[in-house]
Amino acid sequence: METKVEALEDNKVQITITVPAADVEAVVKKTYKDFAHKYSFPGFRKGKAPRKVVDNALGADFVMATVTEDIVNAYYPKAIDEQKLSPIGTPDFSDPGFAESGKDFTFAVTVALKPQVELSSYESVDIELPFESATDADIDVQIKGMLEYYKTFEDASAATKVKAENNAELAFKATDEEGNALAALESESRLWAPGNGMFPEVFDAEIIGMKKGQVKEFTIEVPANDTSILMSNMAGKKVNFEITCNSVKKEVVPELTEEWVQETMGMESIEALKEAVAASHNMQLAEVLPRITENNCVSALIERFEGEVPAAMVEDAESNLLQDFFTQMQRQGVSFDVYLAQRGIDNNQFKAEIKEEAVDSVKQELALEAWARNKGIEATDEEITNEFVIAGLENPAAVEAEWRATGRIHLIREGIVRSKAMQDVIDTANVTRVDYAAQDAE
Fold first, then answer.
1. Contact at 8 Å (CB) between 235 and 214?
2. Which of 101, 34, 102, 109 is nearest to 75 (CA)?
3. Biggest alpha carbon–alpha carbon distance for the chain
4. Beta strands in 253-357 (DSSP E)
5. CA dist., res. 301 & res. 371, Å (int)
6. 152-252 has which fold?
């Protein structure tokens, strides 16, 4: 096979492929043999009908059209693999005519290639990361969370009014616009906290300022985009409330004492608790730190991205993201409408998020490949073969051969190159360790 690649406009190339006569004849023989086995021809056993009989029955043009299609489908992927091209979108095959038995066959295909963008800099990236082990501030944050978990609620004085930082024990009566009782909302005693998502913000606003023993009647219109736990199914409707404030509650967070640690946490001392918290923090950090490192490096590379993002690549990325998203939703048993309600977004906002994520995904892919070209990072044939081996396939060699035959091996090659480039970016990054917990405390 001879292959010629000619550059065209808009990052496209024309690939001209010439298949030797001997290879053409091999395909011709196979096609006639397949047809002889596939169809019944009077007077001939299966597989024994000669070419003229097959031509008379099916038409010589039909046979050669099949031969031509098989050649194009087999040799275009080989050309892509041989030239190490990275096509995107759908290839455009010019009319090649029919292949002829005993003659070379030449056909051409036009295809868009993945662009080779550049980065504004190929110097080591600068990233910030948390310390690799727990800091004093990290431990303090964890212990503060534990104390909050064990907080209790005590009655405030009768004169205390409900504020944004208070909870309250309320009695609920609720009716719809027609005066029908809403049993799901009614309760003689329910602990309420502002902004906890149980009720809409318009309801919370009515409770602020109430005090023990006060009874308040009011009507709210549930917002159309409401996502509150108890009232989202009433979005856009009016609800009448009669609320009695049984008591105003104040939070009481326990103090960190040796006695509390021993009685509640079952540990000997505060120091022992801190050591246990540090160990747990370090174990969790070890799991997530590699991903944080990679994400920060990728973000730094994307900031250096120069050039246009191909629409075809973005469309493919969007399609893959949506497929993964809905597969995950199906596994979790969550409907799309419920997901949107939980997020508090509409369908247009969801589409915009997917679009943005797709663009960033393509930028990441192209940026890593730009880094690889600049650093001379490539994928060897041994590394490509090893990818099929480590995938745990029953016959990795056969699968690799299939991928090569169908012109998909470039996907494996590119993946290896990007993975090696990512590791190089990480290995050469300038890292500044930051105590984020201490910053938040300040």
1. no
2. 109
3. 108
4. 305-306
5. 9
6. Chitinase A; domain 3 (3.10.50)
Structural element, H or E, at residue 93: strand 87-93
User: Do 107 and 436 form a contact (C-beta atoms < 8 A)?
Assistant: no
DSSP 264: I
- What does the pLDDT look like over 92-145, one tens digit per residue? 887 878 888 889 999 999 998 888 899 999 999 999 999 999 999 999 999 999
Alpha-carbon distance of 78 to 94, in angstroms, equals: 18
* Contact call for residues 122 and 371 (beta carbons, < 8 A): yes
Counting other chains too, the contacts that 177-180 makes at CB distance below 8 Å and 24 or more residues apart are 177/237, 177/238, 177/240, 179/240
Q: Give the integer Cα–Cα distance in Å for 394 and 4.
A: 37
State which fold the 268-441 domain adopts. Answer: Trigger factor, domain 2 (1.10.3120)
> Using N-to-C axis directions, what is the helix angle for 21-38 and 51-58, rounded to 10°?
70
pLDDT for 109: 92
Could you tell me the CATH superfamily of domain 2-113?
Answer: Trigger factor ribosome-binding domain (3.30.70.1050)
Distance of CA 121 to the CA centre of its chain: 27
311's tokens: 């629409």
pLDDT of 342-374, one tens digit each? 887 888 999 999 999 999 999 999 999 999 999
Between strands 238-252 and 215-221, the pairing is antiparallel
pLDDT at 95: 80
Could you give the CA distance from residue 277 to residue 143 in angstroms, rounded to a whole number? 8
Distance of alpha carbon 367 from alpha carbon 121, whole angstroms: 11
Element holding 215 (H helix, E strand):
strand 215-221
In the three-class reduction of DSSP (H, G, I as helix; E, B as strand; rest coil), residue 415 is classed as: helix
What residue ranges do the domains of the chain occupy?
Answer: 2-113, 152-252, 268-441
Instruction: For residue 110, count other CB atoms closer than 10 A to its CB.
Output: 14
**What are the C-alpha distances in Å from 237 to residues 171, 196, 199, 232?**
22, 21, 14, 10
274's tokens: 């801190």
- Exposed, middle or buried, 221 (CB in 10 Å: 0-12/13-18/19+)? middle
Q: pLDDT tens-digit profile of 158-210?
A: 899 999 888 999 999 999 999 999 999 999 999 998 888 899 999 999 999 99
DSSP class of residue 211 equals B
| Euclidean distance between the first and the last CA atom of the chain, given in angstroms as a whole number | 69
